[in-house]
Write a structure and sequence with these properties.
The chain is α/β, with parallel strands linked by helices. It has twelve helices and ten strands. It has two domains: 197 residues, P-loop containing nucleotide triphosphate hydrolases (Rossmann fold, 3-Layer(aba) Sandwich); 81 residues, no CATH class.
Length: 290
């Protein structure tokens, strides 16, 4: 993990309770700009709840979520913000575990609608758009250019007019990432982007996420069960179990951590790993930047 990257996100003592159920218990960690931070753990560990707190779907019971905007220099306390402002003002983008595209819109339309806030502002809330004033025409061209760029980036240019619901599953996953990037995020939260992908598509996803990190200079938070993705591209990994952090470090350290092995296997720490699990945890890739 780089020691020179700017601090992007600081999570302090995050706790989320649903009645008597403690989903997240006193979680603290940091994520840096221009790095991929993965949050992993067994099913039910609380990973998606963390994302829901970060992106305004839930208000934490306790804790602070501090986003340091690398471009403006502003600091945002995400736990105090309304959900829509987390995306609109703090520029936190997100994808979901279950794909949430606009199925009857084309690929291009999905990428344009992601820029709705920018276009509405440029249209002076419809007046400039109706009159086709220069300020709106310029914003519209820029929106189309950005959509075209991301269609090409994810290999969907030849399917620009397809309804998104008719795309193959792997294409839908890439389109969802492209749509999130069209919101111009400073932090991108990806909830199991490799779910349902075949090995070739997972490798392509790795390349895409690394290029977003390196070429677009933003921080990524990743929830993922595919260890070939996690160990291959992560700069930093946070491991949860039953809502508590049990490990926090670079991929090499996390891979060898006895608490991590025990959480995943439900076995004593000194027992020998099954070959297939050992292979997953020892997946090639240091997690550092190329």
């Amino acid at each position: 993990m780089s020691t020179t990257a700017e601090m992007l996100l600081t999570v302090e003592h995050l706790t989320m309770r649903f009645g008597g159920l403690v989903a997240i218990d006193d979680l603290s960690f940091e994520a840096r700009n221009r790095e991929i931070t993965s949050i992993i753990g067994p099913n039910g560990a609380g990973k998606t709840t963390v994302f829901n707190c970060l992106t305004g779907f839930y208000k934490p019971t306790v804790g602070r979520l501090i986003l340091n905007h690398p471009k403006s220099g502003n600091t945002y306390f995400l736990e105090r913000m309304e959900g829509f402002k987390v995306a609109q003002v703090a520029h936190v983008g997100r994808t979901f575990q279950n794909i949430r595209l606009f199925g009857q819109m084309s690929v291009l339309e999905n990428l344009i609608v992601a820029q709705h806030n920018v276009l509405m502002k440029a249209s002076k809330f419809s007046i400039a758009g109706l009159l086709r004033l220069p300020v709106y025409m310029r914003a519209e061209r820029e929106a189309i250019d950005l959509a075209t760029y991301w269609m090409d980036k994810v290999g969907l240019t030849d399917k620009a007019d397809w309804d998104s619901q008719n795309l193959p599953y792997g294409d839908q996953r890439r389109l969802e990432i492209a749509r999130a990037m069209c919101t111009r995020p400073v932090m991108l939260c990806l909830d199991e982007p490799a779910a349902g992908l075949n090995p070739r598509e997972s490798l392509e996803l790795n390349d895409l996420l690394v290029s977003i990190r390196d070429d677009h200079g933003i921080g990524l938070l990743l929830i993922e069960h595919d260890m070939s993705v996690v160990m291959g591209i992560s700069d930093h990994i946070v491991v949860l179990d039953h809502g508590r952090k049990i490990a926090d470090g670079d991929p090499a350290a996390v891979r060898e951590d006895p608490a991590v092995i025990k959480a995943y296997l439900g076995e004593e720490e000194d027992e020998e790993l099954p070959p297939e699990v050992a292979q997953d945890l020892a997946t090639s890739g240091t997690g550092g930047k190329p």
